[in-house]
């Protein structure tokens, strides 16, 4: 079941209370460069929109410290707003609060699943909170008979699993 | 170092974050040398991921250093335009990557250290430093689990893997003492609530490392020698070679953009 995490609810409230809904709506077009089905908003990378001395200030937060997609995200934000005729834009990198998979929107998790990436599953992680050895639901066939192949997957935010039922390997979005 | 005692807090913080950035960039570069040289594909990817985490930390520390310096320098100036003697990383980070056992033992030492250091750094009175630590600790938990698993697997593995792990432990042990020493500058920052008192972490580090080493059927070496000097810019010969490779493109094509 998809849970409504407090951090997600807080993000949603910030967006709904924002005086710049049109900016948030335009930014919904900006997708994660590595996972093009999910937007920066759904991923939880887009934190806030403000207006300071003539500029819209878009705050984004990195998922992992070394996420190499940050530069692309930054330029995608600027070019998407420019295409909508908004040129007075600054992108600010915000470190605190640290990004967590609890920032993900419920719709974003469903899109990951559809795309073939198992969304973060804190319950399967147990008390240590780290990626489990097994039991992450296969996004293709739904089986729980799966095994971790590698702690680190194709990007910093993912681990690699294999389904013992349909035998397909799949990415798992790590819970952090 | 007496003159350091009167250093103002901002200048001292700049030096401190530069040290933390140096630790991260040098180790990150070392680990990245495994990219495309890993023993098998998944491990190659894992090491590249860990390297990226460290390089990301370096970028955050150096960006903050540049902000504090406020003299037009950027994160790149800190990484690419300083010479060997200006680097202040702990020596353990600059040692060559060695064989896989050597890389794993170094990671174990550093990961246990970070798992103790970062939660305290999250309490730093400096909000930016605290925020960087809060990001880094999440990654370190994954790093430590991996280096611990490999230590157990290789230590309690074949005769050869056991022997290689023991050799790496013996070779690296003398470089661990430096992690738990404070100079006047860090002492001043500890008193100001900015830096972590790493001397207080030594016994917990030893207990945790010893437990893992013992479970891996290996032996913790005796304290018969210690090497230090990284924090004052005295390095092993390895750092110069690392920087030659790391800084080459940036220095050869100044200001190049693409």
Provide a descriptive summary of the structure in words.
The complex is a heterodimer of chains A (176) and B (258). Chain A is of the alpha/beta class. Chain A folds into two domains: 6-103, Fe-S cluster assembly (FSCA) (GMP Synthetase, Chain A, domain 3), CATH 3.30.300; 116-173, no CATH class. Chain A is 29% helix and 20% strand. Chain A is built from six helices and seven strands. Chain A has helices at 6-17, 21-27, 40-43, 70-83, 106-115, 122-125, and strands at residues 46-52, 55-60, 89-93, 117-118, 146-150, 158-163, 169-173. In chain A, the strands form two sheets. In chain A, strands 4-7-6-5 form a four-stranded mixed β-sheet. In chain A, strands 1-2-3 form a three-stranded mixed β-sheet. Chain A is elongated, with a radius of gyration of 17 Å. With 258 residues, chain B is mostly helical. Chain B has a single domain, classed as Up-down Bundle (Ferritin). Helix content of chain B is 63%, strand content 0%. Chain B has nine helices and no strands. Chain B has helices spanning 9-32, 41-69, 75-80, 100-121, 127-155, 159-172, 184-191, 202-215, 237-252. In chain B, helix 4 runs antiparallel to helix 8 (202-215). The radius of gyration of chain B is 18 Å and the shape is globular. Mean pLDDT of chain B is 95; it is low at 1-6. Classes of the chains: A alpha/beta (176), B mainly alpha (258).
CATH architecture of chain B: Up-down Bundle
Question: Helix content range of the residues of chain A, please?
Answer: 25-40%
What is the CATH class name of the largest domain in chain A? Alpha Beta
Order of helices and strands of chain A: HHHEEHEHEHEEE
Name given to the CATH homologous superfamily of chain B: Ferritin, core subunit, four-helix bundle
Report how far apart the termini of chain B are. 43 Å
The overall pLDDT average of chain B reads 95
The description of the largest β-sheet of chain B is: none
User: How many strands of chain A?
Assistant: 7
Mean pLDDT of chain A: 92
- What's the number of structural domains of chain B? 1
Helix content of chain B: 55-70%
Please describe the biggest sheet of chain A, giving its number of strands, its sense, and whether it closes into a barrel.
4 strands, mixed
State the fourth-level CATH superfamily of the largest domain in chain A.
Fe-S cluster assembly (FSCA)
| Highest-level CATH class of chain B | Mainly Alpha
Number of strands of chain B: 0
Radius of gyration of chain B: 18 Å
Overall form of chain A: elongated
Put simply, the count of helices of chain B is 9
């Amino acid at each position: 079941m998809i849970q409504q995490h407090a951090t997600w609810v807080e993000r949603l409230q910030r967006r709904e209370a924002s005086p710049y809904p049109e900016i948030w709506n335009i930014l919904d077009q900006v997708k994660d460069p590595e996972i093009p089905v999910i937007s920066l908003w759904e991923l939880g990378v887009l934190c806030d929109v403000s207006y300071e001395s003539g500029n819209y200030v878009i705050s984004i937060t990195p998922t992992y410290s070394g996420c190499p997609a940050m530069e692309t995200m930054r330029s995608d934000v600027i070019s998407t707003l420019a295409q909508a005729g908004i040129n007075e834009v600054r992108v600010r990198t915000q470190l605190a609060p640290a990004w967590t998979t609890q920032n993900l929107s419920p719709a974003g998790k469903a899109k990951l699943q559809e795309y073939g990436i198992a969304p973060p599953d804190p319950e399967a992680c147990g008390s240590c909170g780290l990626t489990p050895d097994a039991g992450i639901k296969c996004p293709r066939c739904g089986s729980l008979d799966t095994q971790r192949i590698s702690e680190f997957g194709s990007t910093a935010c993912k681990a690699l699993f294999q389904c013992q039922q349909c035998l397909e390997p799949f990415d798992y979005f790590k819970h952090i | 170092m007496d003159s350091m005692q009167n250093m103002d807090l901002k200048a001292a913080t700049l030096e401190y974050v530069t040290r933390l950035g140096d630790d991260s960039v040098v180790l990150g570069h070392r680990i990245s040398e495994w990219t495309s040289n890993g023993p098998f594909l998944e491990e190659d990817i894992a090491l590249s991921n860990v390297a990226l985490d460290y390089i990301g930390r370096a970028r955050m520390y150096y960006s903050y250093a540049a902000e504090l310096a406020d003299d037009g320098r950027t994160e790149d100036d800190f990484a690419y335009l300083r010479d060997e003697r200006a680097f202040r990383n702990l020596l353990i980070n600059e040692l060559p990557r060695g064989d896989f056992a050597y890389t794993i033992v170094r990671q174990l030492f550093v990961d246990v250290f970070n798992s103790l250091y970062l939660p305290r750094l999250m309490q730093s009175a400096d909000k930016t430093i605290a925020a960087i630590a809060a990001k880094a600790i999440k990654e370190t938990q994954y790093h430590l689990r991996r280096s611990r698993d490999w230590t157990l697997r290789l230590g309690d593995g074949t005769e050869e893997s056991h022997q290689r792990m023991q050799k790496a432990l013996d070779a690296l042990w003398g470089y661990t003492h430096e992690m738990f020493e404070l100079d006047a500058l860090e002492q001043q920052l500890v008193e100001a609530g900015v830096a972590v008192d790493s001397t207080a972490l030594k016994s917990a580090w030893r207990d945790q490392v010893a437990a893992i080493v013992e479970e891996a059927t290996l032996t913790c070496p005796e304290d018969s020698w210690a090497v230090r000097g990284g924090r004052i810019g005295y390095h092993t010969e390895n750092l110069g070679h690392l920087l030659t490779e790391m800084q080459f493109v940036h220095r050869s094509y100044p200001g190049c953009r693409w």
